[in-house]
Write a sequence for this structure.
């Protein structure tokens, strides 16, 4: 069985593909995997870590407002389509699995043109335009929530699988996570993460809230500032006479490669509303304060956050309302109320889908027509 994975530009599109790849390797020993992604995204490095061969495909969105932007996007799409067609013809996949991002479009279209079945995996409560358009030809579309199905055209084969998460997120214990980060597993911990590129407003609010939060000596904080923002955060800490190296339980990094450890050690998270971020939060059963990014198309992160808030698993704080005092109040309100926190933990855990990667792998296997009599680890 040969599987061509595609999706990227951000970790939110790359990590699901890798989670599905892990599940496929468990289900079908000897499966051949190839990842088609962008050269500038995270996926090349992440695929290499998993031992998956990688090929770059040119891709760019067509959502620019000016004619030159649209022309550049069209040229990139044409070039990427040729690359993708050549890749599909040479690799001859049994099935293509797309997890989103601009690069998915030419690869999935090449699969369609050559008669290769494909599976789409949508991470958001409200799907993007590309997946809504491509879904009419898909063998199946894996969606995160029952509410997502209504956004697709009638007749689309939607399967509510949940969002896939890496096995590292599922396997690590609280004690292991705390030890990896130098934290105490018996003290409360908050994990704040604004995405790989960071969230300037969230970082500023944390700087403003930190003196009040750190007045509680037992409170621990793991803070991932995002790319290019660590220097500014460290300057803000220095201005407040806070030195992370001298304050036990305060971990500040630009990007936390060991995010599974931080999730395992946390009692509460402060995060953006990306679909995969929230999937990782809910499989760990964590209460969340969600600050959706206002800079994504169709306000997808707010749609995601509303589902968690409606189920009692999270608090939604619009970025325009976020400042230090508000953030400190929200954190205290959850950590200082054990009954409320237990209720949020139960609601979060109920939303988590730890079997999502294997369910998506099973869909890919079925679409490929591969005869597998026994799946290792399968039901």
């Amino acid at each position: 069985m040969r599987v061509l994975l595609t999706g990227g530009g951000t970790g939110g599109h790359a990590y699901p593909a890798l989670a599905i790849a892990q599940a496929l390797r468990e289900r079908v020993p000897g499966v051949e995997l190839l990842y088609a992604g962008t050269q500038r995204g995270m996926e090349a490095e992440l695929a290499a870590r998993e031992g998956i061969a990688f090929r770059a495909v040119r891709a760019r969105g067509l959502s620019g407002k000016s004619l030159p932007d649209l022309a550049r996007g069209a040229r990139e799409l044409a070039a990427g389509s040729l690359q993708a067609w050549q890749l599909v013809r040479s690799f001859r996949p049994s099935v293509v699995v797309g997890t989103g991002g601009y690069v998915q479009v030419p690869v999935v279209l090449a699969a369609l043109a050559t008669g290769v079945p494909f599976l789409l995996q949508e991470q958001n409560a409200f799907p993007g335009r590309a997946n809504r358009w491509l879904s009419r030809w898909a063998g199946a579309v894996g969606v995160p929530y029952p509410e997502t199905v209504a956004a697709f055209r009638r007749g689309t084969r939607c399967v509510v699988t949940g969002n896939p998460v890496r096995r590292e997120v599922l396997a690590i214990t609280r004690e292991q996570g705390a030890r990896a980060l130098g934290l105490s597993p018996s003290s409360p911990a908050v994990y704040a993460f604004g995405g790989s590129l960071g969230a300037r407003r969230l970082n500023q609010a944390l700087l403003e809230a930190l003196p009040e939060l750190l007045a509680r000596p037992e409170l621990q904080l793991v803070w991932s500032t995002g790319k290019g923002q660590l220097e500014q955060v460290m300057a803000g800490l220095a201005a407040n006479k806070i030195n992370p190296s001298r304050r036990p339980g305060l971990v500040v990094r630009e990007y936390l490669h060991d995010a599974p450890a931080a999730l395992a050690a946390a009692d509460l998270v402060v995060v953006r509303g990306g679909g995969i971020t929230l999937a990782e939060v809910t499989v760990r059963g964590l209460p969340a304060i969600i600050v959706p990014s206002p800079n994504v198309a169709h306000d997808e992160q707010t749609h995601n956050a509303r589902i968690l808030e409606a189920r009692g698993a999270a608090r939604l704080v619009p970025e325009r309302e976020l400042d230090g005092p508000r953030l400190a109040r929200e954190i205290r309100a959850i950590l200082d109320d054990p009954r409320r926190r237990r209720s949020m933990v139960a609601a979060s855990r109920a939303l988590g889908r730890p079997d999502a990667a294997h369910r998506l792998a099973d869909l890919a296997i079925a679409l490929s027509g591969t005869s597998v009599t026994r799946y290792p680890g399968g039901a």
Remarks:
- The mean pLDDT is 92.
- The first strand starts at residue 2 and ends at 6.
